[in-house]
Amino acid sequence: MNGFGLQILSIVRSKLFVKLLLEFLPLGLFLIAVDVYNIYVGSAVLAVTTFISMAVVWALYRRLALMAIITGITGIVAASATVMMVDPMWVKLKPTIVSLVFASILAAGLASGRPLLRPLIGEDLNLTDQGWRVVTRRWMMYFFFIAALNEFVWRGAIQLYGHSPQADQVWASFKVVFLMPFTVLYAAFMLPLLKRYQDDTAKPMGGGDMFANHGHTDKDDGDRHIRAAVPVRSGRG
Q1: What's the rounded mean pLDDT across residues 139-148?
Q2: Hey, where are the domains in the chain?
Q3: Which of 27-31, 59-63, 167-171 tops mean pLDDT?
């Protein structure tokens, strides 16, 4: 297997990837429910499955990343508001609000000289200090772009189809069929960048291999996170 394939395998086997997969599953069920029923049933499904997904991640790892907490809570609140107020605007605004929150957090961290992507995702991607700054900047720009794109799509669908189930379906399809694969593709294109700024080539990227035990203990995991919190000086970059 070539180097790029090994990088992808490292990410797929990582705890971070498994967490993201569990967090994306509710969106797939949301799209199915919207397609079969309507956006209100879909929102109810989204709220319930998001809660279940967060509970499963907690049961597996005994921790939730700040990004997962913000995304999960806002998703549950927005989906619940849509059902209770019979107004799909709330669930459609959620990606905009969350993306702006993430982008603002990352921008504030860069401005203060503290790349905040690591505490936001709750995993050490095995990067140098310069690598964290570069990757944080890329994701900040991505979140600003997604916020603008989401607004364009859901408001544009209303302009074309009015407040109809078809407009809801267009936005739901965009969110799940386009936005999810686009996010994965964007992350995949950054794999060479992660490799370039990898701090320790002996360690996998993405928070460690979930399939490798190697005598791993809770203490080992805690020690790793303590080390990740200590700034590492590097001359690379």
Answers
A1: 96
A2: 3-16+86-229
A3: 167-171
Beta-carbon contacts of residue 109 (< 8 Å; ≥ 6 apart): 115, 116, 117, 136
Mean pLDDT (the chain) is 82
User: Which residues face 209 on adjacent strands?
Assistant: 14
Measured distance CA(124)–CA(221) in Å, rounded: 11
Q: What is the 3-state secondary structure (H, E, C) of the chain?
A: CCHHHHHHHHHHCEHHHHHHHHHHHHHHHHHHHHHHCCHHHHHHHHHHHHHHHHHHHHHHHCCCCHHHHHHHHHHHHHHHHHHHHCCCHHHHHHHHHHHHHHHHHHHHHHHCCCCCHHHHHCCCCCECHHHHHHHHHHHHHHHHHHHHHHHHHHHHHHHHHCCCHHHHHHHHHHHHHHHHHHHHHHHHHCHHHHHHCECCCCCCCCCCECCCCCCCCHHHHHHHHHHHHCCCCCCCC
Q: What pLDDT, in 10s, does the model give residues 147-204? A: 999 999 999 999 999 999 999 999 999 998 898 888 888 988 888 888 888 877 666 5
Least Cα distance to 95 among 177, 186, 175, 187 occurs for: 175
Q: What is the pTM of this model?
A: 0.76
